[in-house]
Amino acid sequence: MAIIQTGVSEKLVAPWAEWAERYREGRRLLEAGTYALTEGAIAAGCRVFAGYPITPATDIAEYMSKRLPQVGGYYMQAEDELAGMHMCAGASLGGLKAMTATSGPGYTLMHDAYGWAITNEIPLVVVDAMRVGPISGITGAPGQGEFYVARYCSHGGNIETIVLSPNSVQESFWLTIDAFNLAERFRTVVTILTDQVISDMFEDLFLPRDYAELGGIVVPRRHNLTMPFYPLNSDAIDVPPNIVGKGTGICVSAYTHTEEGYDIEAMEAQWAQTYRLVNKIRHHREEILRYEAVGLEDAEVIAVAYGAASRTVKTGVLEARRRGVKAGFLRLISLWPFADELFERDARYLVCELNYDGQLVREVMRAAPDKRKVHFMGKSGELHTVAEVATALEGVARRGSIPELPYIWTEVR
Amino acid sequence: MAGTETKEAPAKTRTEILISGFGGQGVIRMGQILGLCAINQGHRVTMLKSHGTETRGGYVRAQLVISPEYVDSPVVENADVFVAFSAPAYKRFHELCRGKILYDPEMVEEVRSDVPGRHVEVPATALAKERLGNVLFANMIMLGALTRLAGMDFEAMKRAMLAVIPRFHEENLKALDLGYQLDAVARRA
Amino acid sequence: MNKLAQKYLRPSQIPTKACHGCGIGMIENWLLQAIDELGFKQEDVIFGTGIGCVGRQTFATWGGDNFGATHGRALAVATGLKIAQPDKKYLIVVGDGDAAAIGTSHLIHAARRNLGVTVICEDNMGYESTGGQFSPTTPAGYVTNSSPYGMAEPSFDPCDVVKAAGATFVAETTATQWHQTVKIVKKALQNDGFSFVHVRFPCNENFGAYALGTRDTLKNLEWIWEHTQGRTVDGKETDFTWETGIKHDASNSRPEFSKILRDMNERVRTKMTEKGSGDGGH
Ligand SMILES: Cc1ncc(C[n+]2csc(CCOP(=O)(O)OP(=O)(O)O)c2C)c(N)n1
Ligand code: SF4
Ligand SMILES: [Mg+2]
Question: Which residues in chain A (130-149) have CB-CB distances under 8 A to chain B?
Fold first, then answer.
């Protein structure tokens, strides 16, 4: 077999590609993803955490309980996840940046709160550290089962959501700052879908010297003190969030609302509200798109992954290239809104994810020019090995199919 | 917001280390110190820690990858070094190792005979009991041995240990030194 | 609109869509009287509600800041809000379903934490906005739309629950006791801690119609009044009696929740400066 050692292009489209250049002075540590995520939140100005412990998000709660009082913030241990997210929504309405963190079993309890926060345009960050399921599954094993749940995080439709996913300890830090920024700019809930591996893994972590110096990249909390409290029929972003407690007369509720926030049962109002909630995100997709790409120019088969899975998949791609396969790598960092534009190439796609039912692959099938060229490589509870990925890429490139591999599922229908 | 660069497909630059034993033996601590030491010397490091449940054999495992460059896959698939602190851990993982296997004979009584050259006996538990009066220091004895064997900077390792472990600094330093000075290890280094 | 309503409420949101003769509006007027007698201004009070008739008919009527939470979660939202805006008074006006069924855990834990809010649980003895099903406060045996053979479950008294959980002010009253209710609400608002005021009122449309067989406001009020006295108007003993009045008053006896957290921060940060750890960023 010929070994081709061609140069391979690497591209990271994310704000922290530049942030990392800007901040050079600080500390280098060996720390866990949960630690980095917590520090990212603190650096972003998060001052309230309310949640209920669950593996593998518990460490975030514990770190928060230590860190928040040090910076004048508040840690609250809620009676359940429903309470936790509603408490965060209340705190954010009162003017404090807030975050909660959970895993699958707690995540599904948050749907009411999600709807309430999204509809009322309350900036919040929610972390879901995914583990293998269904339900409690195996607490110490990674999963990627909430790809769609995070998109459809509340009932009733008529919303768009922003979901980001980190794949390293370092990225957990920067991406969390980014999540808080997007939450402020879009006045909405931003979900961080991380997983057991990226949460629990230790990795070298650079933390900037003084968070006060991050002013240039952190979007501060502002307050909207005047009408309209809800700019209906508008897709504007960077509208300051509303605040309760400053006597503006703001009204916040679970109902379809008017610009004042009054409850109303009229279709025009329902449509105007939906226009706002959906299009403030859809019309600014380019502000949200984040991804990493390797060797896409000449790739005949592109491996697609996010989160923990992307770590071994990327190495698998490089290994396949070494074996002479024209393989590329695409890692989604922003999962929603879905990056349709990245799948316009008429190539073969190998979608690797940590579940057997196939979730991300369905979106790729929808977005790609030819869904018959979209292949699924699902693995449950454990990362794909580098060897598995390289073998599958070879199979897809040479024969148009994934060879049979133990523990790998390829059926989507 | 984009950063683009072109680099050569990397040659194998990564060192993979696997440490496994029972809970409470300080497996993760050992990995943390090793990892921090590498970071302090300018390397990139990943460490996966897993806790097998009773049904999976009851082990704790740390998988470390150390590299001058960013580490993509954090999974140890071909360990350069394997430290075995228990018989189940040895049984489960020895096949993943292509390089040296450090084992504690008090815990791992039987090792494969086909590759004697790759096995290094480190009586960490016995020494910890005998010389320091507490088995808790066995992991630092093992780390001392590993430092010597892998040709790592001993002073840097000591500094990393002091940064990671909050208490019993004197005893831990002594343990590190015991492992580092072991004859059997020194001969193989 | 009366004077108090003019002073405190939003003209555009009055009258509400509540049924004719419903007690919700009357009780709100009594709340305004208590607020007025204490000298609070619109901007001093944050008005929070739940879902249901009680929530929806009072939401956004208050001239100051309002929030209407999802069903049962008003106290969870209020917990976060209180942390961010600790100097405000909070009136949390919720139904029996909101407070004592779907939201019970938040009620209990808000009481335990001594969260500085006043909960007005307006109890119409059922889920009325969904058409009159029984709730945990429907008297056992009474007929509702989901207990056609009489409610089979025992009911409970939410006052007992919050008292046991640590509420610092607990009182029970009814829509037939104007002066007592105003007095109680004033006391509740003066407690810098968790105050719970249970106010029974008649839902003519559902509970009245199905459990009592009448949509007549006066008859429904009379039935409530009789049960506060233990005697019917014609002198017979009632099937049970509600003891009304202040049930527990430990106002201002223990620290309020948001203050506990603020004080802890103070301690942590003082220690940090003493140690000179600076710790700026990290
Ligand atoms: C999660 C959820 N479950 C159910 C409902 C439907 N629902 C709306 S109000 C209500 C009952 C309200 O009862 P209560 O709190 O006593 O208020 P009331 O209408 O009696 O004043 C129910 C069951 C809902 N809105 N949300
Ligand atoms: S249904 Fe009952 S509680 Fe609801 S508004 Fe009508 S009378 Fe009032
Ligand atoms: Mg009710």
Answer: 140
Tell me how far apart the alpha carbons of residues B30 and B136 are, in angstroms, rounded to a whole number. Answer: 12
- CA pair distance A197, A307, nearest whole angstrom: 9
Q: Which CATH architecture has domain A291-399?
A: 3-Layer(aba) Sandwich (3.40)
Residue C166's CATH number: 3.40.50.970
CB atoms within 5 A of ion ligand 3 belong to C 95-96, 124
Chains in contact with chain B (at least 3 beta-carbon pairs closer than 8 A): A
Where are the domains positioned within chain B?
15-188
What whole-number distance in Å separates Cα of residue A231 and Cα of residue A252?
14
CA–CA gap between residue C135 and residue C139 (Å, rounded): 9
Assess if residue C253 is contained within a domain: yes
A211 touches chain C (CB under 8 A): yes
* Percent of chain B with pLDDT strictly greater than 90: 77
Minimal C-alpha gap between A96 and chain B (Å): 28
Longest dimension (CA), chain C: 77
pLDDT digit string (tens) for C219-253?
A: 999 999 999 999 999 999 999 999 999 999 999 99
Our answer on whether A and B touch (3+ beta-carbon pairs < 8 Å) is yes
Point out the ligand nearest to the CA of residue C52: 1
Q: Whose Cα sits closest to atom 5 in ligand 2?
A: C18
pTM: 0.95
Expressed in angstroms and rounded, the spacing between residue C102 Cα and the centre of ligand 3 is: 11
Q: Looking at the domain that runs over B15-188, which CATH code has it been given?
A: 3.40.920.10
Number of domains in chain C: 1
Band (pLDDT 50/70/90 cuts) for residue B9 is very low
Q: Which of residues 92-131 of C touch A (CB under 8 A)?
A: 105-106, 108-109
Class of domain A15-216: alpha beta
**Lowest mean pLDDT: which of A131-145, A170-184, A364-378?**
A131-145
Residues in chain A with CB shorter than 8 Å from the CB of B36 are 29-30
Q: Do C68 and A254 touch (CB under 8 A)?
A: yes
The confidence band for B53, taking pLDDT boundaries of 50, 70 and 90, is low
Distance CA C207, CA C185 (A): 25
| Mean per-residue pLDDT over chain C, rounded | 96
Residue C281 resides in a domain: no
In order of A393, C157, C158, C239, the CA distances from C153 in angstroms are 63, 13, 15, 16
Q: For all residues of chain B together, what is the average pLDDT?
A: 90
- Does A11 contact B49 at a Cβ distance shorter than 8 Å? no
The pLDDT value recorded for residue C277 is: 55
Whether the link from the prior residue into A228 is cis, omega within 30° of 0, is yes
Count other C-beta atoms under 10 Å from residue A380's C-beta.
21
Confidence (pLDDT) at B8? 46
Query: In the predicted model, what is the mean pLDDT of chain A?
Result: 96
